[in-house]
Amino acid sequence: MLGSTSKNQEISKLLETVVDGGYCIGCGACAAVVDSPIKMKLDEYGKLCATLSEPVVQTSHQISLGKVCPFSNEGLNEDQIAEEIFGKDCQYHNQIGYYLTTYAGFVSESDFRKLGSSGGMGNWIVTQLLSEGLVDGVIHVKPCTPSPTDPRLFKYQISKTIEEVRNGAKSRYYPIEISEVIQMLREQPGRYVIVGIPCFIKAIRLLMKQDPIIAERIKFCVGLICGHLKSIHFAQMFAWQGGIKPGDLLEFDFRYKLADRGANQYGMKAVGLKDGEVIECISPVRDLYGWDWGHGFFKYKACEYCDDVIAEAADIVVGDAWLPEYVNDSQGTNVVVVRNIVIQKLIEQGITAGNLHLNAITADKVAKSQASGLNHRREGLAYRLYLADKRGEWRPNKRVKAQISHLSRQLQKRQELRMKLGEESHIAFQKAIKAGQFSVFPKSMNFLVLQYQLTYPSTVLWKQFIQKCKKIY
């Protein structure tokens, strides 16, 4: 039980460190605590962030908000959470965490692969858990209808039929939060599986340790390998280039598969209003400004201080197989890390029945498929931590240690520019919206982008960048 003095102190500490420091990922774990004074709101840059909704002295919550926040220093880290759950049965790999088995492949039954962003494994797993009677509902991110007071295109929702689950297939690079759906879980007793990116799965595990109702009802966590989280302006940036202005966007597909291109050259599909009529726009994202994930446009600051790429606290993890032998297949291929014995049996049954086309690969191979993300959150993170410490700022404790000497000056500069690009993209897009002209955005970003491109020895990337600029102007 928390006394009023303790509540005041811990809420003030959470707000002064995580929120004011810009480290809130907007997951909503703190707002999901019963009687929490915290609400989740979109800020001016289209990012969800924790906000105090009532005076602290009036709150009656009894669970520590700091202990459920994935970016505070009050809760367990990913290694501590995962060791307790998976340490007995799994092996440990220093880049992907604990694992029972690791695969690459896709779903061969029905149209799971066609509907999915990659090989269809994420949706297949939750469908199997539901159809086998191992859960009563699937908590995942699905499209929703935007309104004048809430422009969001996606939210966490509960699916209880196979048809509802299948309508929730595909990845969403979009701000979402869990407090609303956790309240629904409290009101609807049952067994659930939840799907999320690494920091959200960590937050759920921390909530489960503090709240017995959540611990009783969430039976499985399905993780999604994560690059980083984006603000709502990422989708708006692409749609605007197709003629749909921010505020007029109604639907968005971040991973529209293009038959004549490789898996990493997918398209986007936007539906929205133009001159009062509903239009549909489809384009390869590489033909649009802002597609390069290395630039980090619209990235949350918290993502620069995350060291978990493979959702190390999840029962199973799926992601893209960014490996040379799979990347040219436009239909998409998954890498899969299994940590739960029940799920492992479902997968073995799926392989035997011919419903899954999966090949065993090594844990090293899984790590290789995510080499860029792991490098950014290991070697790159170590330098970013060094910079934060040098500035004397509070920052989250990480499993990676602060360092500087392991990176050349050129690589240090690349990390500095990535952070700057993320920060400036939020401001530049806001300027473009106020001006009513998309061209304001690239004009504001191009000098930084060019500086970043020049940290690479190859001239190919910046030549592609210049060609993109010529199309815009």
Stretches where pLDDT is under 50 for at least 5 consecutive residues are none
Give the count of helical stretches: 16
Q: How many strand units?
A: 15
Main β-sheet: number of strands, strand sense, barrel status? Answer: 8 strands, mixed
Helix fraction, binned, reads: 25-40%
TL;DR?
This is Coenzyme F420 hydrogenase. The protein has 16 helices and 15 strands. By secondary structure, the protein is an alpha+beta fold.
Polypeptide structure, described:
With 473 residues, this protein is an alpha+beta fold. The chain has a domain at 1-66. The chain is 38% helix and 18% strand. It has 16 helices and 15 strands. Strand 11 and strand 12 form a beta hairpin.
Secondary structure layout:
Layout: H1 4-19, H2 29-32, E1 38-42, E2 48-52, H3 78-86, E3 91-93, E4 97-99, E5 101-107, H4 112-115, H5 121-131, E6 137-143, E7 154-159, H6 162-166, H7 179-187, E8 192-196, H8 198-210, H9 212-217, E9 218-224, H10 233-241, E10 249-256, E11 267-274, E12 277-284, E13 316-320, E14 334-338, H11 341-352, E15 356-360, H12 363-369, H13 371-390, H14 409-435, H15 440-453, H16 460-472
Parallel strand pairs: 6-8, 8-9, 9-13
Antiparallel strand pairs: 1-2, 3-4, 5-14, 5-15, 6-7, 10-11, 11-12, 13-14
Helix pairs in contact: 13-14, 14-15, 15-16
Pfam families: FrhB_FdhB_C, FrhB_FdhB_N
Domain Coenzyme F420 hydrogenase/dehydrogenase beta subunit N-terminal: 102-182
GO molecular function, one term: oxidoreductase activity, acting on CH or CH2 groups, with an iron-sulfur protein as acceptor
